[in-house]
Amino acid sequence: MSHNDPILLKKIHVTGVVQGVGFRPFVYQLAQTHGLNGWVLNTSAGVDIEVEGPQEAILAFLSDLDSEAPPLARIESITATEGPANGSQEFEIRRSLAQEGEYQLISPDIATCQDCLRELLDPDDRRYRYPFTNCTNCGPRFTIIEDIPYDRPLTTMREFAMCAQCQAEYDDPLDRRFHAQPNACPACGPQLSLVTAEGAGIAIEDKISAAVQLLKDGEILAIKGLGGFHLACDATNGDAVQRLRDRKRRPSKPMAVMMATMEEIEEHCAVSPEESRLLNSPQCPIVLLRWKASSTISPLVAPGNRYLGVMLPYTPLHHVLVRESGRPLIMTSGNLSEEPIVTTNHEALARLQGIADHFLLHNREICARYDDSVWMVTEGRPQPLRRSRGYAPFPVRLPFKARQVLACGTELKNTFCATKDDYAFVSQHIGDMENLETLEHFEASVELYKRLFRLEPAIVAHDLHPDYLATRYAQGLGESVQLVAVQHHHAHIVSCLVENGVREPAIGVALDGTGYGSDGQVWGGEFLVADYQGFQRMGHLEYVPLPGGEAAIRRPYRMAIGHLYSLLGDEGLETALPFLGGLDSQEIQIIKRQVEQGINTPLTSSGGRLFDAVSALLGFDAEATYEGQAAIQLEMMANDKHDDACYPFAIVERGDAKIIRLSELWGAILHDLRAEVPADAIAARFHNTIAQMIVQMCDRISEETGLQQVALSGGCFQNRLLLTKVTSMLREAGFETLTHHQVPCNDGGVSLGQAVIANCQATVADGV
User: Would residue 551 count as lying in a domain?
Assistant: First the structure.
């Protein structure tokens, strides 16, 4: 390079997840490599860089800045402008700069990296078995940050002054712990404590070994993790699992299991390459895997289920506990059924008393509650079922610039969504909005997002249902905001459209349990033509009674009686009763009277309730203790090796809508039951029939509209068997199918659709 080459200066601004991921030391080293002077600093809006040197070196620097970024960085944009050279003689990392009103993307919490894991397991390393080991490539982020820019004083790590060794690492731009805000070691960082069920401290040096022994002895431990507590026990110990179920008041819902290595997981489950990639990803979610019959994990972990929710350890504490216990461990949310996950030591001792035998605590505060994420893989394609740790608060990229909107989500599996610029910040999983504790979690999380992303939403979206807590929250925000009510299934379909980058109208198939319809009925088997602005209801499943409302959801046999009696009369019901188990004759008469007189019996077009009713007829005679339980059992019952036979049904025109009549379907199922056709064959044929209904309805709608894209959304599409059949049959029929891959198809994704619809409708209304 000639000494006469002109010296240039570039001012560079980088946005994305570029703080807390080793970006500044990467920039420092890159500048050294290319012989450039200048500086780099964090701001509230991202990372600012100034580099000075020959043009060729600056161009190479800019190219490498994008292509060689640290593994956890997610660059959204790089802008560069030229300025006059100022004669810098070195490259330095400057102090962070807070900027009023500016925001940046926040990194989710990241699973322990391989470098930290090596140190954790090395007896000669100073961080051997230290439960809070981390670096710029891994560890807590979202759960400890209180504000931006992401610096230690603005995190819950500010309580821990670094020792000389940690400070030296933190200050060294060439160290992978340079400005790792949670940096710590046994001498200066957070510490564990082991206490009894009554909260009395246990004076013991090696808390982890003591906790491991308690787990081996069959005890239940409450363990403080990243975003809250887990309840843990030996997953191979049926007695311990049953005690945990009894105490947690969770009689049947599957629980997640943590195993130390992929080799151990493969002993218990079949794992595809895509499932392996998910398990080993930095997000480290729970993945639903096919459970091997040879597994020694207690069947009580996931009763009646062919799939097991499995995750690898994602914190140093989990790595050491699971490895040293030498067995799979249940790691389920630390809460009573339907309450939010517990985060503070005080809260844990109060709310988990009576569940846990001992508590393994630590003294690092948790800023944001953060459940584990859950994914499944269908036909090689990953799909989220719960989006939380490892994913939130990273945004969904919108195909347009949005105004500031807050969408409050739904009652079940609540998330909220806030939009700004071309980002939709879908919150972590909040839970079922059925109690004060969850509402408080919702409100605190909204305030955190508003603070981190500098949000002041003037538009607030909510569900049509007037009694949802999320709706009441929205309506309580006062006259300073513009409220937009959004129909539940319209939001489902738009959430699928927007995450696939589709802006034009499409056919939407929304199948779920419950959604408040614009006609005041309970919807859930819907065929729409929808875009961001609005929708037309083209058709739906036939309305049937929901005897007793919520009671029919908890007791699926009531739903079966509602279907059979309303569609086939006394004769159909009498034929079905022997297959519904020993029902109380008085209750049957009450249900019939409810149906006849419409007493506390709303009408529903719900797909989820149809699955429940068929499940009840095929042997599910229990009370459902978690959402979708009867439908899941029907899926597990189905033998997907049967032929493609399906039951008859009719599509009839009523006014402007196409109605799928169900009486022929029920008559055929009863015929098979009387003919002693095995339940697994009937369940498989039922799934085939639902898939056939969807394809035929889409064909008819396409003939009218010319539309060829079909968006599938709603909780029923968590059913792998149904989703696989529907997507395959739609493809064969010439349709392009859109499914979820960023947010859940269940109600956890509805807030995204609400936000997009509210943005569009408010913009049109305001003439913006």
Answer: yes
Instruction: Judge whether 307 lies within some domain.
Output: yes
Residue where one domain finishes, among candidates 375, 395, 422:
375
Phi and psi torsions of 736, nearest 5°: -95, 120
Same domain for 562 and 672, yes or no, is yes
**Structure tokens of 212?**
């491991």
Pair 368, 142: CB distance under 8 Å: yes
| pLDDT single digits (tens) 502-511 | 999 999 999 9
State the Cα–Cα distance between residues 225 and 317, nearest whole angstrom.
Answer: 8
Domain range for residue 24? 7-93
Reported confidence tier of residue 768, pLDDT bands at 50, 70, 90: low
| Digit-coded pLDDT (tens) for 190-245 | 999 999 999 999 999 999 999 999 999 999 999 999 999 999 999 999 999 999 99
Asked if 488 and 429 count as a contact pair (C-beta separation under 8 A), the reply is no
pLDDT tens digits for 689-698? 999 999 999 9
Residues 84, 206, single domain; the answer is no
Q: End-to-end CA distance of the chain, in Å?
A: 53
3-state SS of the chain: helix, strand, coil percent to 5? 35, 25, 40
Closest CA to 749 of 407, 288, 279, 282: 407
Calpha distance 157→151 (Å, rounded): 10
What amino acid occupies position 563? H
Is the Cβ–Cβ distance between 153 and 42 less than 8 Å? no
Distance (Å, whole) CA 540 – CA 510 = 9
Helices (H), 20-137: 23-33, 55-67, 114-120
Q: What is the model's pTM?
A: 0.95
3-state secondary structure of 286: strand
Residues 572 and 490: beta-carbon distance below 8 Å: no
Residues 491/509, Cβ–Cβ less than 8 Å = no
Verify that 257 and 365 share a domain, yes or no: yes
- Number of domains the chain is built from: 3
| Residues ≥6 apart with Cβ < 8 Å to 95 | 41
3-state secondary structure of 380: coil
217 and 84 inside one domain:
no
The per-residue pLDDT for range 75-111, each reduced to its tens digit, is 999 999 998 888 889 999 998 888 888 888 899 999 9
Rg (CA), the chain: 28
Q: Considering 72, 93, 114, which residue would you say is the last residue of a domain?
A: 93
pLDDT digits (tens, 9 = 90+) for 231-280: 999 999 999 999 999 999 999 999 999 999 999 999 999 999 999 999 99
**Spatial contact of 331 and 311, defined as CB atoms under 8 Å apart:** yes
In a domain, 237, yes or no: yes
Q: Nearest to residue 417, comparing CAs of 470, 372, 365, 464?
A: 470
